[in-house]
Specification:
The complex is a heterodimer of chains A (about 325) and B (about 250). Chain A has about 325 residues and is of the alpha/beta class. Chain A is built from eight helices and 18 strands. In chain A, helix 3 packs across helix 4 and helix 5 runs parallel beside helix 8. Chain B starts with a strand and ends with a helix. Classes of the chains: A alpha/beta (about 325), B alpha/beta (about 250). Chains A and B meet through helix 3, helix 4, strand 7, strand 9 and strand 10 of A and helix 4, strand 7, strand 8, strand 9 and strand 12 of B.
Chain lengths: ~325, ~250
């Protein structure tokens, strides 16, 4: 039976995020493979890269546009999306498992009587049943779940599903909807950027430092390596708890669980709660003096040397290339 | 003012997870359980709110008998009473949220704190589900929280920054690391907690919305290669990252 599929996209400050394009590509392939009808929706005001959607997605594109909707409002966004889903009999809904996705998905689930599987890394179709695989215990284990209600919502882990441009795409019209009578019970007034730097949750490459960096004053080495690679800076719990680095950089079970293409762990021994949060990275490099450090058990490539010698050398080598 | 904090009892983050034979649960032998780390921020914020505005802090937990240990810890930190919604078999997030929402409705509380995520099943949705069922406002991932009469000003941590959010009571707040420094229970607090009431309620299991098929172990990582032990190894490393891994 054909189904209506919806990709919910996220814009921040007028730009649709990379993770939303991953969702678009997933929905494009998934809908084509199952013969489903697909739509993509984004709420905002002036969206600078709205035309980009067409390069990744052949379904219908809808924008709910209003000045007051430039910043996120959980109440307004939740109501608008839920109304759209009900009015258009949407069966399957996909969005990225970002802070936005985690905030809005449960809201929509209640309002539209949907079931919900969060942070999925795989979704397979087993005789018409959609089985979602998702990490639990920060990735120490995985669970396979089936969403029971007819209407189902899935959030997709960032950096797991690849965005892929269509080989040819045609000019489509983007449908604009102007909402009436907006009530914003909860609203974001502004966004304060932490440092203008890349966030570990979104980065494709992460360079992380641990206790082996010996003090906050040495983290410029981590930052330099991150800079040449276009990477985000991460940190272990030990150095966050010691106050060397801000908690938004923490990777692990009580920080962020990440799946980048490349994770470089410098002076991190690899406590179990850290390994849980990063071991699903595609490639892991470990630099640590202690050859028995548990981090080497998950690393693809290891250097058992001094971070203060290896990191500067690595920066030089990368600059050469 | 009745301030509610919802807490969960979870395996310590330092424990290894072993699966039971039925592949539906984890093997709890040798696993030590603790209060969910994010819930400690919720408890601290609830107590701070009470210290500022007066009222009482009520801790609620849904789960088996063992969850009482976590409720007791929250009472030792400074909460006034506990409610244990006892269920024998695990529920999905919707079930937990439904039970909590029913109880909060009974209590008529207008300010509810949750940890932003439970570090066992990592859904990070129970606060938002509960708020939506109750038709309360909700701010998730909170790192700054202030309350003045009915107005809430808060900051929510998002990727690469913070959203500055305004809302009002009634509200659900989910707490992120960085919001506060949770206090440790004092000896006096631990003694006092023994006399504080925990009401146990047997509740009906709500209809599930998620069916667990099985738990499985993540794919084994093959042991990697040690390339070297000094700076001369970096040339080889960069070559491998480019040509073999193709990640840079």
């Amino acid at each position: 039976m054909s189904k209506n599929v919806l990709a919910i996209l996220e814009q921040r400050e007028g730009t649709i995020k990379k993770s939303s394009f991953e969702v678009l590509s997933f929905v494009e392939t998934f809908s084509a493979g199952n013969g489903f009808t697909s739509h993509a929706i984004v709420i905002g005001f002036d969206i600078v890269n709205i035309e980009e959607i067409k390069k990744f997605f052949s379904g219908g594109i809808i924008t709910i546009r209003h000045e007051k909707l430039h910043n996120y409002s959980s109440s307004a966004y939740g109501n608008l999306l839920s109304d759209f889903i009900k009015a258009n009999s949407i069966d399957l809904i996909f969005l990225s498992n970002t802070v936005f996705g985690r905030d809005i998905a449960p809201r929509i689930a209640i309002k539209t009587d949907a079931g919900l599987a969060m942070d999925c890394v795989e979704i397979s179709n087993l005789n018409g049943e959609f089985i979602a695989t998702r990490p639990v215990f920060a990735g120490k284990s995985l669970e396979e779940v089936k969403v029971i209600p007819e209407r189902k919502i899935f959030t997709l882990r960032q950096n797991v599903f690849k965005k892929e441009e269509l080989s040819d795409f045609s000019a489509k019209e983007i449908k604009f909807l102007e909402p009436q009578d907006l009530v914003l019970k909860t609203k974001a007034k502004e966004i304060r950027k932490t440092s203008g730097k890349l966030d570990v949750a979104e980065a494709d490459i992460i360079v992380s430092g641990g206790r082996g960096m010996k003090g906050p004053e040495h983290f410029h080495l981590i930052e330099e390596l991150a800079d040449v690679l276009g990477a985000a800076v991460g940190a272990s719990r030990a150095v966050v708890d010691a106050g060397w680095r801000p908690h938004n950089e923490q990777v692990g079970q009580t920080g962020k669980t990440v799946s980048p293409s490349l994770y470089i762990a410098c002076g991190i021994s690899g406590a179990i709660q850290h390994l849980a949060g990063m071991s699903s990275s595609k490639y892991i490099v470990a630099v640590n003096k202690d050859k028995d450090a548990p981090i080497f058990s998950v690393a693809n490539y290891g250097i058992t040397g001094d971070v203060f010698e290896i990191i500067p050398a690595l920066v030089e080598e990368l600059k050469k290339a | 003012m009745k301030i509610v904090v919802c807490v969960n009892h979870v395996p310590d983050t330092a424990t290894k997870i072993k699966l039971s034979k039925d592949e539906k649960t984890i093997d709890s032998a040798g696993v030590s359980y603790v209060i969910n780390p994010y819930d400690e921020f919720a408890v601290e914020e609830a107590i701070k709110t009470k210290e500022k505005f007066g009222g009482e802090v009520i801790a609620i937990s849904v789960g088996p008998d063992q969850n009482k240990e976590t409720i007791r810890k929250v009472l030792a930190m400074g909460a006034d009473e506990g409610i244990h919604l006892k269920v024998e078999t695990p529920l999905d997030s919707f079930g937990v949220a439904k039970l909590l929402a029913d109880e909060i409705k009974n209590l008529n509380s207008e300010i509810i704190f949750f940890g932003k995520q439970s570090v066992d099943y990592d859904n990070s949705i129970i606060g938002q589900l509960t708020a939506t069922i109750l038709d309360y406002n909700c701010i998730s991932n909170c790192v700054v929280f202030t309350l003045e009469s009915n107005t809430v000003n808060a900051e929510s941590e998002i990727e690469g920054g913070r959203e500055v959010i305004e809302s009002e009571l009634p509200i659900v707040i989910t707490t992120q690391k960085g919001l506060n420094e949770p206090r440790y229970p004092t000896l006096k607090g631990i003694m006092a907690a023994k006399k504080k009431p925990i009401t146990e309620k047997l509740v009906n299991q709500p209809e599930p919305k998620l069916e667990l098929i099985k738990l499985k172990n993540p794919p084994e990582k093959n042991p990697g290669r040690i390339i070297g032990s000094d700076a001369s190894a970096v040339t080889e490393l960069v070559k491998l990252l480019k040509e073999e891994a193709k990640v840079i």
